[in-house]
Amino acid sequence: MEQVKYSYCVDEKGNLVHVRSLTPATRHAHKLYCLQCGQEMIPNLGEKKAWYFSHKAETACDGESYLHKLAKRRIREKFLNEESFPITFCRDVPCSESKECPCCSEKYICQRQDVEIPGDLKIWKGKLLYDTCREEIPFDGFRPDLLLTCSTKPGREPIFIEVFKTHQSNEKKVNSSYKIIETNEIKTEEDIEDILNRGFVEGDNCTTYNFNPQLPSIRITDNPIDRFVLFKSGAAIVYKAVDYVVTCDKINSYCHRNSEIELNMRGQGIDIWGDNAESGKLDSYQKGLVYLVKKGMTIRNCILCKFYKYNDYYSSPMCILYKKIGLESPFPKQTVANSCQQFELSQELLSHSLAELEKEVSIIPKVQ
After folding, report:
1. Which of 75, 304, 308, 322 is close enough to 327 for a disulfide, judged by CB 3.0 to 4.6 Å?
2. Tens digits of per-residue pLDDT, 253-270?
3. Looking only at Cα atoms, what is the longest distance across the chain?
4. How far apart are the C-alpha atoms of 83 and 151, rounded to whole Å?
């Protein structure tokens, strides 16, 4: 039983024939054969159903290799017959200011994701790239489905085009350093049409290997950043990047008119307390406060106190002396430290070095 309704076959001269190129009057003008098995086919030109080719006689041909062969044939014909064959790369592009940005580091890089970078396989910026496309030609121990070369530049490294129907490129081929374009799995004729209509689109209808397209210069101004704010009272707040309060176009500007000092925090920040209580790492509040103390500021804030400890039951930090000092709640305001006689800086927090903190924090100069 037929599993595929074929839209294409070949005539006695090997020319590709689409069923819609026929009419009831011309349907028997040529002998027609299957791309896969070579057996004779007949056109079905019904008035109600979509037109298609089927095998004239009973056959075991299932259409698997048909799609593979059709894809190679049609991609090759488009490449040879059209003035261009577009390819679109989709890459993450770092901000052009990332090297100078105080919020960027090797670990945290501000970038625009999935930027479309247009290209072409035939001509780019007026120069010929590739003009020859051959099928199943051995090259350096490989046999790509299609091999792109340049007739005027025989020394130019070729491009392999692989049609994924049942097998993907093996590790040896991928690691060969040759540029490879591999289609997504071809399941239907529509998958082939998509490539022909749009060209190759990385991450959408194909995967590429060993290509390094030139990245565009992008100045990102709307990327959210973490901002630490200290007030004269000693209280602090952190505007998290996820809250989208401060974006990188404000990286050198204060965001709060009543603030005493403000800091930029690299990366997307860490949830307050959370796993940091066990790991020994500083959360964003601790990081900003300890940094400023290390820079010579005198700050009284409950978060800095040795008696302000993380409590597993509450899943939150709390004052472990709240009853002794007469507080109604174990969760005091940060400024309680200003009048608390038990306040004492936590040496555990202060054990973090200034050099370590400066990798994560940068101070914003205040404009007078």
Report:
1. 322
2. 999 989 999 999 885 443
3. 103
4. 16
